[in-house]
Amino acid sequence: MSNWEIIFATTINEFSDLSDVEEATRVTLRLLFAAMLGGVLGFEREHQGKAAGLRTHMLVCLGSCLFVVAADMSGAMDDAMSRVVQGIIQGIGFLCAGTIIKGEHLSNVRGLTTAAGIWFTAAIGVAVGLGKEATALVSTGLALIVLHILPLLFQRTDKTDH
C-alpha cells in the first residue's frame, strides 16, 4: 500500500462516525432543529435589543445538542451522559455569570433574564440532543411566552393602574 493510499484510508476512517445514512440524517436533523429553536429565542432577544441575541442563542443550543449527540454516538451509558449534561450546565453557568452586571445597589442588577435565557436555551439543546424534539418545541414556545407575552401583559396592567 502506498503512502497516499494509507493517507486516504486513514482520512476515510477518521470521518467514519456518520457511516450510515440513518445516523447521519438523525444527527443532521437534531443539530438543525437545535439551531432553529435557539435562533427563535435569539431572534426575540435581539429584537428586544439584548446583547445575547440570535447568534449567541443559536450557538448555545447547537453546542449543547452537539455535546449530547456526540456522547450518545460514542455509546455513553446513562452515568456518562449524566456527566456530559452536568458539564454543559456548569459551562453555561459560567457563560451566564458573565452576562450579569451588578450596579452599586443590590436593586441595580442587569442581565438576569439574559443569563436565564441562555441557560434555558442550553436545556433546549440538551433536549433536542436526547431526541426529545417535541419537549424542546413546547419549551421554546413557553420561553417565548415568558419573554415576549408576559412583559406585554405587565405593561397593560401598569397602564391601567395609573
UniProtKB/TrEMBL annotation:
Keywords: Cell inner membrane, Cell membrane, Membrane, Transmembrane, Transmembrane helix
Annotated localization: Cell inner membrane; Cell membrane
Pfam (any one): MgtC
Keyword Cell membrane: yes
InterPro entries: MgtC/SapB/SrpB/YhiD_fam (IPR003416), MgtC_SapB_SrpB_YhiD_N (IPR049177)
Subcellular location, principal: membrane
Presence of the UniProt keyword Membrane in the record: yes
Membrane-spanning residues: 56-74, 80-100, 112-130, 136-154
Membrane-topology descriptor: Multi-pass membrane protein
Domain MgtC/SapB/SrpB/YhiD N-terminal: 31-152
Membership in a protein family: Belongs to the MgtC/SapB family.
PANTHER family the UniProt entry points to: MAGNESIUM TRANSPORTER YHID-RELATED, PROTEIN MGTC
The protein, known as: Protein MgtC
Source lineage: Bacteria, Pseudomonadati, Pseudomonadota, Gammaproteobacteria, Pseudomonadales
